[in-house]
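Table S4 entry, PLS3.
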Amino acid sequence: MSRPPSLMLADDKLEELIEQFNTLDADGNGFISVDEIGHALEVVGHKLPKYQIRDLIKEFDTNIKDGKIDIEEFKMMFAKLEDVRNLGRKFKKQVKESVGVKHIAGTNDASSEGTTHSVKANELSGFADWINKCLSGDPDCSPYLPLNPATGDLYQKTQDGIILCKMINWSVPETVDERAINKTKLDVYRKTENLLLAINSARAIGCSVVNIGAGDLLEGKPHLVLGLLWQIIRIGLLSDINIAHHPGLILLLEEGRIANFTSDISDSVAYFHLLSQIAPAEKEISTVGVHTRDLTQRAELMLQEADKIDCRTFVGPSEVVKGNYKLNLAFVANLFNSYPALEKPDDAEIEFVQETREERTYRNWMNSMGVSPFVNRLYNDLSSGLVIFQLYDIIQNGIVDWNKVHQKFPALRKVFLMIENCNYAVDLGKAIHLSLVGVGGKDIYDGNETLTLALVWQLMRAYTLSILKELTNSHEPVMDQDIIQWANQKLASAGKSSKVESFKDHSLADGRVFIDLIDSIVPNSIKYDLVRASDGDEDRLANAKYAISMGRKIGARIYALPEDIVEVKPKMILTVFACLMTRDMQKKGN
């Protein structure tokens, strides 16, 4: 019997598919659960994000959508993925290499053989120039600078992690304790420590590093290095562009003259007018160039005007004309940060609430998980429930029935559908035993601060403890007392005198317990001559900063801030201990 065209697969590949299917079909009933599909496809060469897996299941689960996949459906899934891959290969062979684009093959462990990643030379140039500008006065960076975009030395000069750590501190000051950075004797081990510190610190400020490891950066994989740098630069450029820092922004909310950083700015007209408005009078910005017919020449004239106010950064004429989103966003953000030029509104007419430290920590945690859309405003961006569902799926794969989730919201039914999503999100929380008494879907939709934070905190806690449960191979949930017991045993076995009674223990405020615990997990990692005597608030804060950075340096994914330790915030204290315990369990598993 002949095979359908889409199943014209080599016999050895069919055997591999059948073998993988039979391995997962433990009871031999001819089906595997949809929850196993992602793993099965990964084994045979296709690692996919969850949304693509869900789309494939919807398309090929033909047996009355029963949540099971048989071997023929599995073959069809694989065949479609192979067809798409082969089509992409043929297309790339027919198209000459794009101007300014370099294709890097096989540069991501998550990629299948033959996958390519586009690295744009203009982004390399823009990021390199910005790093040169930001770090020019840092003596630790002088051996690396200036970066030369023409040679691509950025990939080599970021391999030891120092530039990455410095750029994180430019983006969010004091995120990385300088004492934790290895600056001398940079062998592979010490470079890897710096890269772990950079990755976990980037995660803590809200960068998504789901598919980025220290090994990737040590090898200088271009698309991953640029991807991480873009996130760090973006966070730094946008961090102060808010109503709290610039109340005059409230006056712009109804003045939508441009809608994007691509087509709307490609003729440079908006940029000419913007520069003439924000520049100091003595700079004498000229708008004559706006009448130049050639768009590339017009863009160059505009950038010459930007150079008068020292803001010719990120973009060249071609990036303006072609509408490179990233680089134009960065260009405008730098213009704003340099010359906001906004009139302050009447204080009586404006009301805003500063983001709390707790809210920022949760927001950064969610963004580091790679949720979409990116969470900019905690309560607003959770109102549809979509981010919450993604977090549930990360905590317990397969728990979300995506057939019940509304992902599009027509204007006439938007509110109803969003509240329905939020009701389902609350139901899922109760199903995994979160304490949600008095919390309803409408509370999440409305952005009730107390109740929304209660849910988000429990999601963050559940995520942390779910990793611990998996590492300990326990069928029972990990309890607070289990973590405390582990910490005390670890400290005692290393001969440390420190001890913890509870997550509310005020003796934790000086940071010494965490410092000793880190040294117990990785012996001799702590330089005790850098630890303060804890005689005052300044010393305690310095110790807490050192503890958090050293925890990240040994590989712990710590999101808490030094102030959380000094103020003994029990929730965040729990996460620090749990993250360190997770690191210890991972070390034992290696």
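The chain has 25 helices and four strands.
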